[in-house]
Design brief:
Helix content: 40-55%
Structural class: alpha+beta
Shape: elongated
Strand content: 15-25%
Distance between the termini: 24 Å
Number of strands: 2
Order of helices and strands: EHEH
Number of helices: 2
Largest sheet: 2 strands, parallel
Radius of gyration: 17 Å
Strand order of the largest sheet: 1-2
């Protein structure tokens, strides 16, 4: 009997929003430069939407890569907590492997 083992760094799999990007020009995405932002409140809404979309894309690619391993056991690094792992499993991974 063979066993396929994989390890994967999911790069900060968290279930809380990271507010460190606000007011930090080094972390500012160039996408927001396309908008004529009139207020800080409008900036915050656009930045949150951008961050969520980027995070969703990243998680989909991560789930695809993990599913492609076809591993029996997967060891994951940089998982914040069990709730974040469960949300990733049910929200992304199960959809990629068809369960």
């Amino acid at each position: 009997m063979s066993l396929r083992l994989a390890t994967f760094n999911v790069e900060n799999l968290m279930n809380r929003f990271d507010f460190s990007g606000y007011r930090n020009q080094l972390n500012e995405d160039r996408t927001l430069a396309l908008f004529d932002i009139q207020s800080e409140a409008e900036y915050r809404i656009l930045e949150q939407a951008r961050a969520i979309a980027q995070s969703d894309d990243t998680r989909q690619l991560t789930a695809l890569a993990i599913a492609a391993t076809r591993a029996d056991i997967i060891c994951m690094q940089e998982v914040d907590n069990i709730e974040a792992l469960k949300a990733f499993e049910y929200g992304y991974l199960f959809k990629m492997i068809g369960q």
